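Input:
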Amino acid sequence: MNATGPPAPSLRGRPRGLPALALRAALVAVLLAAIVGPLAGLVLWSVAERWHWPAVLPQQVGLKYWARITQGDLLAALTRGVAIASVTTVAALVAAIPVSYGAARARLPLGPVLLMLFLLPQAFPQLPVFASAAVLFYRWNLAGTYAGVVLIHLVGGLVYAVWTMTAVFRAIGEDIEEAAINLGASVTRTFFRISLPLALPGVVASSILVFIYSLDEFTGTLLVGAPYVTTLPVYMYTASLGYELQIASVTALVLMVPGVLLLVLMERFLRAEYLAFFGRL
Amino acid sequence: MNAARPAEQLLWWLAAIPATMVIIVGFGFPLVQSLVASFTRDGVLTLANYELVYRLYRQDVVYTVMVAAAGLVLTFGIGIPLSGYLRLHHSQTAEFLLKVPLFVPFVVVGHAMRIFLAPRGTLLVFLHALGLVSQDTTLAISEGWIGLSIALAWKHLALVVLLLMGAFRGVGEEYLEAARGFGAGTFRQIWAVMVPMAAPSIGLAVVLSLTSMLASFSIPLMMTKGSGPQMLMIDLYHRYGQHGDFGTASAIGVVSYLLAAGAAYYYLKGVARQ
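Output:
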């Protein structure tokens, strides 16, 4: 396994002298500045109660804007977003499991074709399709409704759910299922008693992925939900449009919480293929 | 594998219907509708929408490709050497830091970069605090292509490094050892061994980032408020939202499909191979 893991210390190419250490330290410092810098700007703006040119730092610093989380529009957008994300997650998982399991086990004769269908939304630009979906939703009286927003979130959510869970089901050995079937269990019973319990950790990871996707989803919510159903990302956009930079920055930081929490908590056991999905959020 | 009995097979098919319907209703059908709408105006088949796109937005097509190309150069110009270096010199801190942008949503990146790169943005605040610039310095990149490509690169670098690190780790240690045996340093090991051996994965990462950057909407929406050339998705949004012109908006959409089509082809092929 040496070839796939990080190289062992003895195999490192360079002697670990002072210049090499300095280079590493410099690299980490530059990365820290480049990655944390823009985010630190958000923190600064979120506590800037008064900040007028030419002052380099805010003249007055406080938590006035942070207090908005506990009241009014911001809280409403947050709870609305959590409610939509919860419904989307449950619906996506229930709907995706039969597709994933069917495709992973070749029980659905057209499994590969079906899987391709669930890749399409990743391959096309989102905005033109969602704009077109919004036109349809207006016709069907779904625009500006919770049902419409959940439906548009499900499109993206299902893609994540189907693909991650197909990988999870493929990773479970078929022999244990065959043993159950040979002992007389039906395929459906085997699925519920053997495969699903084994897949549970993957199902949990998949649902976290869908939940965060829905919470962060912007384009579809803007086109289908706004102005009646606004979630945090849309709320942040509206605030920034009105030059309420402090409110927008507080909202931005709140939006980052679930993701960063997940990054810190799951750093060790979140598999790389799940991480790759996050890059599309 | 034991074949499912016909009744059970029917059950699995029925259970797969809701998810399939969501994709068809929420994606497939709208996709087809936008294709049709791009070729019709007032119910008549016409190319008028495309003429309008050519007249009003042809420079924006070039601009969009240019911004995406600049973002791509930046992302891979940093991503390839960085991933190669980290393949040889493992650093947990660096790898953790690089994952952070994965978890920052696009809209947040747009807003953060807007206030970071603004004429008197937080970047200048930090530089001033370090005594590197004077108080009168201003920066005029947040609204233009430089600011956009920096923001796009910031967001995409995380995914690219993740993909490249995976690919570079797949390059056998024996090849790198052999290269070292001939006196290759870090730079030579990356360019002469890792990059050629991981070329297919690099290609896939390029395609993924390119389609994403060409179709980027929330980052430019958050960053650009003024006039001047715009990304295609911003044009589409205004055509649709402010002018209520779904036909022309769809034609812009079709142009973006075509830009992404070549990329999408390789993407699907690559995924199918896995």
